[in-house]
Write a structure and sequence with these properties.
SAM-dependent_MTases_sf; two-stranded antiparallel sheet; alpha/beta; Rossmann fold; about 40% helix; binds S-adenosylmethionine
């Protein structure tokens, strides 16, 4: 699948079902689990306990409606989000969320940027980030290696990248469409790649993207998904440029 096609399929899908999917209880619980892990590991991420200590700039890539940005807002000074879905970007930029903070998102796909997107990236100062996070999105990218390379390019030297996704799962092999629909995800299969993220592959991806150090940690608790999905386990991959 070409980058334009998969990005465009993801845009349409999230415009259609994203808002209702984020209201599903299991997705709310998953978001809380991710947030709790991040907040318990701020030092590991290189994030100060509060934003007055050191100015920090965060890139939230494939930001959706802003789960990661909201969690890290008390700890960083500037946040820039990017998502391929214009609907998600509108939700992210709603005044209730941004709440006078230096926090905003634009619609873009780093794998298939149009001239207008490249312009918006420059105007929004989408470079020299201290931290980049991409949460639950690696399994949607046409080329995860190229995407991580593009994200690491936007980090300052010494900056860190955090990647969160399902460990050791071919998400594309998950149950058939009907079951995914019942879980509130809509016809999601056509928005997925067939990657499996293991400790070895994540460390290789992060190093291949330009990180001098990379580590992979499994979430200590499993995540409970509806019905036939059963329990799955998240990973947190951290790279340092
Ligand atoms: C499962 S959601 C995760 C959202 C958010 N990061 C979170 O953890 O709640 C995946 C997000 O990736 C976005 N996405 C998919 N492909 C993308 C691409 N090529 N570029 C930017 N965003 C993309 C989707 O629009 C969607 O908002």
């Amino acid at each position: 699948m070409s980058a334009d096609n998969l990005g465009e399929l993801n845009r349409k899908h999230m415009n259609d079902v994203g808002e209702s999917a984020f209201k599903q209880q299991w997705i709310v619980d998953l978001g809380n689990q991710i947030t709790a892990y991040i907040l318990a590991h701020l030092e590991w991420l290189g994030t100060p306990p509060n934003k007055t200590e050191k100015p920090m700039k965060l890139l939230d890539y494939a930001c959706g409606n802003g789960l990661i940005s909201k969690a890290l807002l008390p700890h960083v000074s500037t946040i820039r989000g990017i998502d391929v879905s214009d609907k998600m970007v509108d939700l992210y930029n709603s005044p209730a969320r941004t709440n006078n903070a230096d926090m905003s998102a634009i619609q873009a796909d780093l794998l298939a940027p149009t001239d207008a997107m490249l312009d918006a990236l420059i105007k929004g100062e989408y470079s020299d980030f201290d931290i980049a996070v991409t949460s639950m999105a690696l399994h949607h990218f046409a080329d995860p290696q190229l995407m991580l390379t593009k994200l690491v390019e936007r980090l300052a030297i010494g900056g860190r990248i955090l990647v969160i996704d399902w460990a050791n799962e071919a998400v594309a092999d998950w149950p058939a469409e009907g079951v995914l629909k019942e879980a509130g995800l809509g016809d999601v299969r056509h928005t997925l790649n067939d990657s499996v993220f293991t400790e070895k592959s994540v460390v290789e991806l992060l190093k291949g993207a330009g990180c001098r150090e990379a580590e992979f940690v499994l979430c200590p608790e499993t995540s409970k998904l509806p019905g036939v999905f059963g329990e799955k386990r998240l990973f947190f991959g951290l790279g340092t440029k």
